[in-house]
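User: Hi! I'm a student and our assignment asks us to look at how structure tokens line up with a sequence. Could you show me two examples?

Assistant: Happy to help. In each example below, the sequence comes first and the structure tokens follow. Example one:
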Amino acid sequence: MITSEMLFSYLIRKVVEQRSSLCIQCQRLFSSVAPAENLLSPTTNSRISPSQSDSSVSSDDFNETNENEWLWAYLRDRQIFTDLNEAQKRRVIELELQTLRESGERVPERIPDEKWSELSTTALLESRKTIYGYLFLRELHKKKRAANVAINDKRRIASAKKRSELLADGRVPSNYPGYASIYRHFGHHHEKLMREQKLLIPARLNDIIVIDCGFEQEHARERYLSNLVEQIQYLYADINKFHSPSFVYLCNLMKDGRLHFEFNRRSPLENLCFETTEVSYLDLFPKEKFIYLSPDSQNEMLEYDHDAIYIIGGIVDLSSKKPLTFGKAKRQQIRHQRLPIDRYVKFGSGSGKTLTIDQVFNILMTLKHTGNWHEAFKYIPNRKVAVRYTDVDEKKKHEYEKYSRWTGLGNVEHS
């Protein structure tokens, strides 16, 4: 695994080799120039003819070397990447790709046009290497997909040929083994039809969950938007787990925004049985029905309110600790609550208390169907959990909180 120090050393060696090559070219140039007394004689032209200079040395070499002086200063003084201009950043990225490729690292063959802006704003080398690895895997996926498409095309041509032969012989034009069976073939369109049938009744009864997509400007990196789209896709796949799931609204989803573009690039919104709109949820439903779920709220959620419309904030930026959902609920004067996670689950020391959108949806739906918080919080991954409190532990904890001030154990940590 190549490190940052190794990469900087390699780049410095490359620049030193270029400067050494320039010195050799300059020596060859001056050795080919006529002596000084010949230059001062009246019969000799004061200018040096092109034949007197080495043909291998051109003005382009000097221009290129002068332009690379900033690169030598950047590597020598360890300057900040963000202080360079766009052309210099592009040159540094190209050198990094060449160095990593020669070292056997996983780098893409080319950088897509939409990724140059993200790379130019990424200051750390390790972060850029992460993007290189992602683009490398994406190239492999595209190559594999192209190979599969070619195989499917050949298979489709062979199937059409066999179909025409079957029709010519007067037989059934189908390759499906269960064509004459009483069991029907079950495909993806049938799964979508089942989800639509499940969501039709809650949509009529206004049993709705809202995902607020109005935090697009808070996602500084493209991978956050990609993760948000993945979480919504996981949510869509989990609908069949529940008997009567709530209908999902994607509000504040701008058609010309980056999130909408990411949806269309990965999975078109037409394939999801959700309602998507640019309109705010305040213009669609009564404000008194809303409950905004926020981890920064002081109000603890005790039970599922079947008459309320719960709002889940579409935020994936793990580096931001700002109370964005809580602040938005306060500005819009909407009720806000937080999940009582600490009463039922103790997180590990190295894991954060952040939950994905699909996990929050599964928790709400389980609580809606069972009313049991212990069952609902089973959707929190085990890798994040240190202890899951049982019903007995919860009862003891409540008794401890109730009588601790009388027993003088208020400062003792409960275990």
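Example two works the same way, sequence first and then tokens:
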Amino acid sequence: MIHAGLPMSFWAEAVNTMCFTQNRSLIHRIHKKTPYEMLKDRKSDVSFFHVFGCICYILNQRDPRSKFEPKADKGIFVGYSSISKAFRVFHVNRQCVEESIHVKFDEESYTDEKVTHSPSIFQELLSCPFDEAPSAGDKTDSSDSIVPVPCSLNRDTAATSADNSLGANETLESKDSPETDNVSVSNSPESASVTEHRDHPVDRIIGNIHDGVRTRSSVFNNFCMYVNFVSMILPDKVHTALQDADWIKAMQEELNEFERHKVWTLVPRPFGKTITGTRWVYRNKVDKNGIITRNKARLVAQGFTQIESIDYEETFAPVARIEAIRLFLAYASYMNFIVYQMDVKTAFLHGVLEEEVFLNQPPGFVDKDHPDYVYRLDKAVYGLKQAPRAWYETLTSYLLENGYRRGAIDNTLFIKNKGSYMVLVQIYVDDIIFGSPNETLSKEFAEIMSQRFEMSMMGKMTFFLGLEVQQQKSGISICQSKYISDLLVKYSLSDCKPASTPVSKTDKIHADPTGTDVNHSLYRGMIGSLLYLTASRPDIMFGTILCARFQANPKESHLMAVKHYAGCNLDNKSTSGGCHFLGNHLISWSSKKQTSVAISTAEADAIQITQNPVQHSKTKHIEIRHHFIRDNVEKGKVVLEHVKTSEQLADIFTKALDSQSTAYIIGELGMITL
């Protein structure tokens, strides 16, 4: 404790941790065994031991957070759980002890913050006096007495009560308050509602007024009611869950959803048919205070046992491309309307199956009268190979029935015209974005979806497919700033210096067969992360594509190039690149290495040739799409204009540039610094 700089209130935690580690340590050499080994008859694993009092970070699985907030909270390691493999962590913000297995340790750092414990249950028992009856001389009105406030007992505080109990001889301090006839405190999670009467001034109230009025029995009752409300233990097997009434209730609720959606029918086991297994997946739902409020059980099919062409035919379900999302946002910005977002709850349970699929009865819920029967599925369930396609077909049919047209090229785009306005709908599995210049059409679409499906309205679109979206009157912008920050921390590049250009013109990279090998998974992970980042960063597209060419056998020089974006001097093959605009809005870009070496300048200038309808022997190998462009130029549908070399925006996707050219092109592409 002295080394960690922790106060005396952590004495019990320190003693428990000492006992835990001593029981797994070789104390007396004459026995040649640890106490744990002598008791359990097996050697103990000490690989999970950590330094007591060190700084750690616990995964935040309780508080609802936005996608841009930290995933972990700061804490202090104070021991090990006695009932599981979890670690005990003192949460700095909540001032309580939590148990979790999702903890990362920084054993070289210790806290320099003021740390105190929350009152334990024993402290509350000793500090809360019995209710006293008023004396005969006191005249009080029940309407003017202190209003009782429901007391919520923190689970973590109760769990650590034995370690943090206080002596009975400790005194309680009263809260001083100015004398007023009426004192009102807002009834919120941070404060309780209190009414003061002149016969009961606030300065005579013992203890914290925010804790409400409780007796010893009420503390125990509230605690017991909370424990019996939901199960705090997450089962790993079905037979464990079946021993807990709360999890049985959760599983029954899931089966009730199946009945409500008419997902299946119990039938005799068919001969010669494949029967797919099922399994339960368990999760705990928590509220904003981190208290477990609901036990959630989900029944999923073991789709890995399905055989193609026997159990299913088609599994493909179209999803919106990232380019389609950017095009949608560009059009919304041009037409100046708001894009909204919604989510379909239990989407796959709405999908109607075309194939005949049979499932085993759920473990623990086998029909007593027909134990050998199986379920024939009428609708899809989570885990089936064809579930996404079945859901897409169901949603598509419903939208077509309500007057929406499906896009000819993009099958995830649906349009409905009404007068001079139209509403646009883009689908990505169960996530839907929509909008219209006429707000009435947007509300109409939301109502149509709510009539058939159970929807979760998410309001204005702010985050979709990893893109942070900001909708303003001046336009719509997308970025991945949170992802970039996480990426720098993940690869220990937080202190790196910024570069003026994404690709160096002087430093070149090559195959480097004699170079030092590096971790292939690390290199490919960095490349994959950068490719995902190009969804909002066209300026790094060329550098990322260059480094991606060495994923088969990366060397140390290639790893450094990923961090610094060096140029490439591998072969004579050219790189094709380009970008597309909708008006002034950039919607797509690409950079790709050509499959063969250009054998003539005519091939490199193919677009210029399309302006002149002359065939030449050296142009026969040019692809048909170039002739298609030429035909459209002749018809006047496409206009080709000459662009100066200094104004060629596609250069940033094909070669390394100096800082001045890079800054100019980035500005023309519409990129800004947030």
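Here is something you could point out in your write-up. Residues 489-604+643-668 form one domain.
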